[in-house]
Design goal:
0% of the residues lie in helices and 42% in strands. It has 92 residues and is mainly beta. It has a single domain, classed as RNA polymerase II/Efflux pump adaptor protein, barrel-sandwich hybrid domain (OB fold (Dihydrolipoamide Acetyltransferase, E2P), Beta Barrel).
Length: 92
């Protein structure tokens, strides 16, 4: 008769895969139409010229060109201000 105790089970140990969010193309880099520039949740970065926003808030290029980041003041609904980063593409 074996005297090894059974290992038992646990409800821990599961983990989800990372979502790979963040900036994919930096300022001044060339981009082709349809290429993903930023993967994000919510609108941390705002779409500018020649940029479209996907259903999951991903920003992608609508035209080929060079990526340009800029900062502008945006007014919230309560009247306070926030600095918003706007992403655009200078078309070639």
């Amino acid at each position: 008769m074996a005297h090894t105790k059974s290992g038992g089970s646990t409800k821990l140990g599961r983990d989800s895969a990372a979502q790979r969010l963040g900036v994919k193309i930096q300022d001044g880099q060339p981009v082709r139409a349809g290429q993903i520039i930023i993967r994000q949740r919510g609108t941390r970065y705002l779409p500018g010229a020649n940029i479209r926003r996907g259903g999951d808030d991903t920003l992608y290029a609508a035209a080929s060109g060079t990526v340009k980041y800029s900062v502008r003041q945006k007014t919230r609904f309560d009247g306070s201000q926030r600095r918003a980063t706007v992403v655009g593409v200078r078309a070639v």
